[in-house]
Amino acid sequence: MTRPLKIVILTTKLPEDIWLINNMADICSIEGIVLPSGKRYREYGLAYVLKKRMRRLGILTLANQALLILYRKVVESRRDKQAAKEIFSGKPSQYIENRDIDILEVEDINSEEVRDFILSKSPQLVVVSGAPLLKTRILKAAEGRIINLHPGLAPQYRGRYGSFWPIYNKEPELVGVTVHFIDKGIDTGAILLQQQVDYDPGDTLKIITYKQHAVGMTLLVRCLSEYDKLASQAYHKTDCPNNNYLAPGLTHYLKVRRWLRRKSHK
């Protein structure tokens, strides 16, 4: 019988990612986990994000994005929490079951501390979900054996909002999930597995993301169980658009909600 892979996980404290950890523990030997010291890594912190986006996008775009965050928190958060309980009911999503796992909490995912942590564990594979863009020192520490669960069909829909923009572009069939190798780009690494994700027209953006994680877990289990075979068959898609999408704003989101309502009534 093949021994389970020794892995290190770079992820977040969000319910969907804690659920992933608890599922992976059934089929892998988790040598260590890297988590943000707060709710988010420094790169996702509010002050850092606002400063970066203001410089890059301008105040109007930033205001539109901020309004969407407020809208989702006020209008949709209760539904999102209930959906999370239902979708992730098979495993805990609030705490890590195996408390003996070595856990490192940091502000910066790309710090030397994280690099040294990975090297000290000598994992066969590093698994990523929800972490910021990784820099060269982390990629080198993993020696190229590092895979990511991306909530989108890459490379058509790269970036953090691969569940939203396919619907906005009226390509709902391209809502999906990808497990791919990580390289220096944003979701541009060789693909191991992909799958379309079904959702309901009334689902919120967060609920669709939850469903992507549920399907993604199935793909991750297969990748971790058949790693050598799938790694040897990893591929790049060159016959489709290659786009990296930024965060949507409230006007984008309301447009999508209207389109989905019309579509559901046809």
Tally of separate helices: 9
SS-derived structural category: alpha/beta
Approximately what portion of the residues adopt beta-strand conformation? Answer: 5-15%
Strand order of the largest sheet: 3-2-1-4-5-6-7
Say how many strands there are: 7
Largest sheet: 7 strands, mixed
CATH class: Alpha Beta
Rg of Cα set = 18 Å
Whole-Å distance between the termini? 52 Å
Low-confidence stretches: none
Examine the coordinates and then state which fold CATH places here, giving the name of the CATH topology. Answer: Rossmann fold
The helix/strand order is EHEHHEHEHEHEEHHH
- What would CATH call the architecture? 3-Layer(aba) Sandwich
In summary, what is this structure?
This protein has helices spanning about 15-25, 45-55, 60-85, 110-120, 135-140, 165-170, 205-225, 225-230, 250-265, and strands at about 5-10, 30-35, 105, 125-130, 145-150, 175-180, 190-195. The protein has a single domain (about 5-265), classed as Rossmann fold (3-Layer(aba) Sandwich), CATH 3.40.50.12230. The termini are far apart.
Structure in words:
42% of the residues lie in helices and 14% in strands. With 266 residues, the protein is α/β, with parallel strands linked by helices. It has one domain (6-264): Rossmann fold, CATH 3.40.50. A 7-stranded mixed sheet has the order 3-2-1-4-5-6-7, sandwiched between helices.
